[in-house]
């Protein structure tokens, strides 16, 4: 046998290098039912082609502006990987993107995901994608495609990372924020479901400092492990907000409260002449934030800049229609509280009165 033939007989394969194409194909087969369940007008949600298609005309838009957003889940994934709780991070991924679409008045249309890993675990990946499909179902958008990248040497064997990409549309006249945001407009706060997907580097540091295992019962949530409580998925606000915008004309602006909290996210939708005056005593602070503040010795100002502290979305509503907007949001399942008003700006864009109950 020649040297060339010998080398071919003992040659390496892609699987030898750590990439299993068969596992990738198995994952696609596993997730097809999840993807199909997210079908909506404009998308049939098939998967396996080179690109996903969407028909704007079939979705019912007449003068559409496309709005796009992308995001990840951050180091919340470290808890998922460490504990094997993979079933809700997909919801987080979708929520972080579609909540950023709806604040501009847009209806989410379709979503694509990017899943990168060291070695593909079909069960874990399928659980993640099932969560992504659930997030799409909750928000009313279609999962029309994605990418799985197996990259040994780039990631440790059990590690993975996620990115999401969402596109929505809004007819031109419905774009937010509106130009008539003005003095006296009411700020309505929509309750968060917990930490959502921001600040987890600090959360993980506090957990390490506490000495409590992620498998132990959460000090602030009887019946749940600490990991389960921290992994509560980000709330998806899309359908209730779309209902309020379609049934009233009083929604002037929306702010998704993510990294930077109220101090840094509210100014993004306000004119430079106006200040958000917020009464912190009106905010119902979830137990998880009280525990994080106490266990980590985190000051109120730092809590407000790092976490949502119980308010995941803020609606800037006209004074005349604030009441009906609140009623609609409550009907749609949201917990809503009036947290302040817009006043003339004399200095900072956000001014706090009172204190959080930490």
Distance between the termini: 77 Å
Poorly predicted residue ranges: none
The gross shape turns out to be: globular
- Portion of residues in beta strands equals 15-25%
Number-wise, the strands total 12
Major pleated sheet? 6 strands, mixed
Strands of the largest sheet, in order across it? 8-10-5-11-9-12
Q: Count the helices. How many?
A: 12
Radius of gyration of CA atoms, rounded to a whole number: 23 Å
How would you explain this protein's 3D organization?
A six-stranded mixed β-sheet has the order 8-10-5-11-9-12. It has 358 residues and is of the alpha+beta class. It is built from twelve helices and twelve strands. 44% of the residues are buried. Helix 5 links the parallel strand 2 (107-117) and strand 3 (142-150). It is 34% helix and 24% strand.
Summarize this structure briefly.
The chain is built from 12 helices and 12 strands. It has helices at residues 3-9, 21-36, 76-83, 89-102, 122-139, 200-210, 226-230, 238-247, 261-265, 287-296, 300-306, 322-331; strands spanning 64-71, 107-117, 142-150, 160-171, 186-191, 217-218, 221-225, 251-256, 274-279, 311-317, 336-344, 350-353. It has a 6-stranded mixed sheet with strand order 8-10-5-11-9-12. The protein has a 4-stranded mixed sheet with strand order 1-4-2-3, with helices on one face.
